[in-house]
Amino acid sequence: MALIQSVRGFSPVIGEDTFLAENATVVGDVVMGKGCSVWFNAVLRGDVNSIRIGNNVNIQDGSVLHTLYQKSTIEIGDNVSVGHNVVIHGAKICDYALIGMGSVVLDQVVVGEGAIIAAGSVVLTGTQVEPNSIYAGVPARFVKKVDPEQSREMNFRIAHNYQMYASWFTQDKPQEDTH
Prior knowledge:
Blueprint: E1 3-5, E2 19-20, E3 25-32, E4 37-38, E5 43-53, E6 58-59, E7 64-66, E8 74-76, E9 81-82, E10 87-89, E11 92-93, E12 98-99, E13 104-105, E14 110-111, E15 116-117, E16 122-123, E17 128-129, E18 133-136, E19 141-145, H1 148-170
Parallel strand pairs: 1-3, 2-4, 3-5, 4-6, 5-7, 5-8, 6-9, 7-10, 8-11, 9-12, 10-13, 11-14, 12-15, 13-16, 14-17, 15-18
Antiparallel strand pairs: 18-19
């Protein structure tokens, strides 16, 4: 069972139909919408400030979400995918964005709607990632614009796939064969 812990008088609020892997950690001032998933070894640490997550968001394996005390918060919109081993520290991620595996997104960053952060990128403090664009590199820089409808459709499909994957873990386990 996932570690869900209150701290400083704040208790996590988990939306309906949300999957938490058995070793996911959700602590403190965290509010999640409906149909989300938090995967193995992911940590959502709302101990020093708030984390707000919309609907149909997946936080994949090994990701860490944290903030600066009294200085930054995390806001994640709807239909967002946060790839494996991502660090989000005090940033705003708008609807239909995709944060690629191994990326680091630092304080006061805003990732615009439908934007894609390429795997392994480091988005420096205060960067404003344009909506419907791809940013990549260390530090992350603008690469190109993407068609808004294609970006929205692709990112929605990925987020929706994670609802399906989560369902595999919540179905009844098969009975042991006693023969």
